[in-house]
Design a protein that fits this description.
The chain is of the alpha+beta class and 313 residues long. The protein folds into three domains: 138 residues, TATA-Binding Protein; 94 residues, no CATH class; 43 residues. The chain has ten helices and eight strands. It is elongated. 16% of the residues are buried.
Length: 313
């Protein structure tokens, strides 16, 4: 009697532990990759294959829905991915987001069903992946923690392969053009004022040479300052341009970077050719900068050689 009671309690305790373990293994994983991306047909098909393979491991019958949002504010949903890949993707109605959602097919809940059965039929595993505005987000919910984590890992790996990693380039362009505009608005007027100062100093002293730039900025004597001092309105205009020139240059640089390196590219339909044209433009501009740099260095070196070989007067 004692042994039978012990076995009965043990079995009940074991069933209870099993139920608790199942409840504790239910898991949710969500995350986002804040990166620019290029979603072409090949990557979208591989992403769909991952979602289909993973949901099939947890559901006998399931449904995968693609929701496509267009630039004019319209959207549509379909269960046939070929509809998405055949999207015209016109410039005026280009694709701005694609969401892929997989969940078990809805089944009617029988009358008198136990709460656990109702939960199983209504809260089945869910996979959602969304691509929009330079952010790739995902959500995975399932009854098995290991399945959720493996699915998350596969999705993150695929999203990482789609990442363009171009945001650093946009910020670099913004910084470069900002510094260039700041330097231009600072040095061009300052050098012009120094040239005028030197010309007037030579009228007093023909032996006066070029004033060193540091001395021109910080080391002029009071009597020298009286030779040429820019008028107050001119100084205020220069100060205004100097303060805001860098900010305007940085803004222009960021806008140029946003055009050359967009955050979200859905390279299907007409936008596939547009993206290829954009890559050609980027390559052309890059080679143009390289050639301009090489020519500038070569011209500077050649000028120095000619100056050195010129016979003294």
């Amino acid at each position: 009697m004692f042994v039978g009671g012990t076995l009965l309690v043990s079995c009940a305790f074991g069933v209870s532990l099993k139920t608790v373990a199942q409840d504790e293994l239910r898991a949710v994983a969500r995350g986002a990759l804040q990166e620019s991306f290029v979603a072409d047909e090949a990557n979208l098909r591989k992403l769909g294959e991952i979602v289909r393979k993973r949901i099939a491991e947890q559901a006998g019958s399931f449904r995968i829905t693609y929701v496509v949002e267009l630039a004019d504010g319209s959207l549509y949903s379909t269960t046939n991915p070929d509809v998405v890949f055949k999207e015209e993707n016109l410039a005026s109605r280009r694709v701005v987001s694609i969401s892929v959602t997989a969940r078990p097919s809805k089944e009617p809940v029988p009358l008198g069903a136990a709460p656990a059965q109702v939960q199983e039929l209504t809260e089945g595993p869910v996979i959602n992946v969304s691509l929009k505005n330079g952010a790739m987000t995902y959500y995975v919910h399932g009854p098995q923690r290991e399945w959720v984590f493996i699915t998350q890992s596969d999705i993150r790996e695929r999203l990482a392969n789609m990442s363009g990693r171009t945001r650093q380039i946009k910020f670099a362009l913004a910084v470069a053009l900002g510094l260039g505009a700041w330097a231009l608005t600072f040095f061009v007027p300052t050098l012009r004022w120094r040239r005028i100062f030197d010309e007037r100093m030579r009228q007093r002293n023909p032996d006066h040479g070029k004033t060193p730039f540091r001395r021109w900025l910080f080391g002029l004597r009071p009597d020298e300052l009286q030779v040429y001092t820019p008028r107050a309105p001119m100084q205020m205009s220069w100060l205004f341009c100097w303060m805001f020139g860098g900010a305007i240059g940085a803004w222009v640089g960021y806008q140029v970077g946003s055009y050359l390196f967009p955050d979200a590219v859905f390279a299907i339909g007409q936008q596939l050719q547009a993206y290829e044209d954009l890559k050609t433009l980027r390559t052309t501009l890059l080679w143009g900068l390289v050639v301009a740099f090489v020519v500038g260095v070569a011209a500077s070196a050649l000028a120095n050689q000619l100056v050195r070989r010129r016979p003294p007067a």
